[in-house]
Design goal:
Layout: E1 2-5, H1 10-19, H2 35-42, H3 50-68, H4 88-95, E2 100-106, H5 108-111, H6 122-133, E3 139-145, H7 151-161, E4 169-173, H8 176-180, H9 185-203, E5 206-210, H10 216-219, H11 222-239, E6 242-244, H12 246-255, H13 274-296
Parallel strand pairs: 1-3, 2-3, 2-4, 4-5, 5-6
Amino acid sequence: MLLLVTPMSQSRAQAQAVQATQAPAQTANPAPASPSQTTVAATSPEQRGITARAIDKVKQVAKSAGDIFSRVPCLPPKGGSKAMGSLPHVANKLVAGQPVVIVAFGSSSTAGYGASSPDFNYPNRLAAQLRRHYPTADITVVNAGVGGEDAPEMMKRLQTQVIDVHPDMVIWQVGTNAVLRNLDPADTAKLVEDGISRIQSAGGADIVLVDPQYSPAVNQRAESAGKMIKLLGKVAELRKVGIFPRFEVMRDWHENQSIPVESFVIADGLHMNDWGYACFAQLLGDDIIRSVGQIKLGVNVPADVRTYRPM
């Protein structure tokens, strides 16, 4: 069973749909279902077993996932190293068949501003990917994103919306709004370090930080953004948690893969669109899946080796 929890109301999602730049690979007219798919759909839920229903759902989700990358594939930066054993806590829970709770904590990039619908925000895309790979697993992905916030506001709800949920993994997207407000990156880094300490003391969840995005609005404040990215990396190293280098990944899309910025950032020059969120989620999900695979193979990596780098 997979629960997708999103904070956005339907009206907000509709408003975003008007503003969002369409992902470069969305398909307007999906292909008709195959005969095997049609046969399964015609059978009543009461007559189908749990496995059959799971497979049916996986087919639907897989088609949706494939459509968005059909013209512009989602590729990680070249030369990146594998994140071997980077998420041991959530990986062990999945291997053992135990329920897994992942909290996506952050601001508008987590809430999904810029996506054409809640289905395309990154927490829901990540959940869909994990469902495809673990169709019978009990996975809950909680979207705890609130637009406009940064570390000072997030720390006020850290206890109730993260720690009290008892997560197995926390993905903490932070730093962008601090850059846009000209806040001191050192102050943000200190708050994030304090927050990580509280999460670790509460239960030892795997933690992955997500740094600011590569976008025109952020690039206009290059000096502050550079300091923020560097300090968040140092915090991750000091506290032995993962970090998803979003700025580096998105810059690679544009500078090395020759993808136009407007193909992954909406017209406001700041927020990601459907394709951007989908690729971000895909790369993060790949790391979780690799980590689980390593546990299954008996690869024991020290718990403090958690630096995320996409393949």
